[in-house]
Amino acid sequence: MRLSIGQLIVIAAALATGPTASAQSPADREWVVTDIFEIAGVTVSSAQANAVNDTGQVVGSYSTPDGSIHAFSWTPNGGLVDLTRPGGSNPGNAVGVNNVGQVVGPDYFWSSATGMINLILLHCCSGIDTERGSPYDINNAGEIVAVCTAVAATSPCIWTTATQPFTTQWFFIFGGTPKAVNDAGQVVGSGFDGAFLWTRSGGTVNLGTLGGRWSGASGVSETGEVVGSAYLAGDTVRHAFSWTSTGGMVSLGTLGGTNSDALGVNDSGLVVGASDIPGNSASHAFARVAGGPMVDLGTLGGTRSEATAVSNAGQVVGWAYNAAGEQRAVIWSGPWKDLAVNFGPGLGVWALRQTSWMQVHGLSPESTASGDLDGNRLDDLVFDFGPQGVWVWMNHATWLFLNPQNPTHIVTGDFDNNGRDEVVLDIPDAGLWVWRNNTSWELLHSVNAKHLVVGNLDGLLGDELIVNFQGGHGVWTRVNDTTWERLHGLDVSTMTTADLDDDGKAELIASFPTFGVWAFRNFSNWSQVHPLEALRIEAAHIDAVTQIDLVFDFGPGWGLWTYDNDVDWARLHGLSSQGLAAGDFDGDGRVELVVGFGDAGLWRYADGAWSHLHSAGPGALAIGRLH
User: Fold this and answer.
1) Which stretch of 3-7, 308-312, 521-525 has the lowest confidence by average pLDDT?
2) Which of 460, 430, 456, 458 lies closest to 442, judged by CA?
3) Which helix H or strand E contains 528, and what residues bound it?
4) Phi/psi of residue 312, each to 5°?
5) What is the rounded CA–CA span in Å between residue 546 and residue 563?
6) d(CA 266, CA 627)
7) Closest CA to 487 of 456, 510, 517
């Protein structure tokens, strides 16, 4: 049944009358590359990132215009730190970092607690003065893998930092160089006999080749997947490989050129490295989701790039040339969304990035929204911290103060279609204000709102702001950022937007007290969706069809129901929720559902199955590309 606005007004006793959810756009499914030193505001001649941990700490090296070379550590909240030895000299490079922030480099161990420890002076390898140790990686237990040289012997070793002085275990591999170690103590690398995997209990396992005479391993995940590169038969072509104990060594192919090298892998099987591009004119960084093809990560506008490491949060780091031919340390952000959760006082806000939780802030905000304020395709989080005002976490790195007020609502949307989201604050007794293009404030309306959502209702350029005004004024929209147009005279209990018929125009789905749920379709007419009033409404892909589905929380006794493909109703869960959110968390272009069930914790529904995300009951939920 479809009713016009006028007919619905009659039914309603003659009363005067989040960002749009849909499949991701192609731009949303692209990887985004960011220059770390541009974020840090530091001028460098060249730079490269070598490793990243699950909290987003990146380590590597950079050179300055005066020719000096520095090892660095960079964190989203702490910024750039130069790693210096006592006396002020810099070791020049950092090659590994674990999840507690311990860093290793050519001859040192560093943490914020200990500072720089010179491993040569500690005689970690054998206790004699002529030794030298060259670390390559460190795991979360503080075990360091290195090449140790003492007297005339050179061989891989593993140091344990939990003991003072460090203890050393040698393992002889002819010409061996260890490149990575996981938390189980599995060490991988290369020797004269090819790629190897070493464990304390099993000794050394040769991983073989792809038909040629040489191979080398560069990374190992916690699941035991090993990646590296190996020659094919004939020893003229080299391919990236993945090795598992059950499947052996498998070629990962190339980006269309001749050679490729895999340099890192995370626990989800995301492999990164570099490959020749078609024509072999250059090599580009690649990422490969488990079972998928290689994806070219591109550059900063230059010719070459290389992905050196990947975290369990899905952050990929490495280096890329810019248009001026300068090498820069970079972070690539993958085409999936992350979940920001307010766990309340004492816990604050945390972000779930792939499988890794990261604290964003220790305070519990009163409201949260996400949007791309600077147009770089990375989402920023907007928080109302009450008396502390409104702040923005820009590019998962920098905190910016936005407004001293304590707004009732916050939403974001690209109203002028310039690629940068505006922020709308509903400030009590001051009306609706918009932060334009990350530069200036503008009053949109003097009346405050009961509810705010954003969606592209007319399918034209730019989002529309949809407002249920206080004072019985009903629901209005600001069309094309210029004209206010009334949509309905009734107040709603909740509303959202979603393109239900995939025509490029978002529908407004609103729940009216007493009159149930209605949809304002194609910017033209209202039709009833369900006679019951809904507490919450979200849009997600519930079935295998690409068309977006609606999820309704009808409250205790009714629970969660889905409205699939704008046609069929099905019960999803018997419990009512305390919060709903939806996003593409795995980058496949489909939108998954996240539900907060109070004391039962935080859950995700995807591909027909529920999975537990966290035991704590969440407050506000926000979705964005935060990695």
Assistant:
1) 3-7
2) 430
3) strand 525-530
4) -75, -10
5) 14
6) 15
7) 510
- Both tokens of residue 505? 């125009």
The token duo for 389 is 């005002």
Residue 60: name the closest of 96, 112, 114 by CA: 96
For 22-78, write each residue's pLDDT tens digit. Answer: 444 444 558 999 999 998 888 999 999 999 999 899 999 999 888 889 999 999 878
The continuous run of DSSP H or E covering 7 comes out as: helix 5-11
Nearest to 63 by CA among 329, 270, 439: 329
Q: State whether residue 243 is helix, strand or coil.
A: strand
What confidence score (pLDDT) does residue 444 get?
Answer: 97
CB 161 within 8 A of CB 102: yes
Order of strands across the sheet with 440-445?
A: 409-413, 422-427, 431-436, 440-445
Tell me if 96 sits within 8 A of 136, measured CB to CB: yes
Residue type, 146: A
Answer with the residue of higher pLDDT: 133 or 422: 422
Note the pLDDT of residue 318.
98
Give the integer Cα–Cα distance in Å for 372 and 350: 19
pLDDT tens profile 357-384:
989 999 999 999 999 999 888 899 999 9
Phi then psi for residue 598, to 5 deg, are 65, -125
Q: Give the H/E segment covering residue 40.
A: helix 36-40
- 519 φ, ψ to 5°? -120, 130
Alpha-carbon distance 119 to 96, whole Å? 15
DSSP 554: -
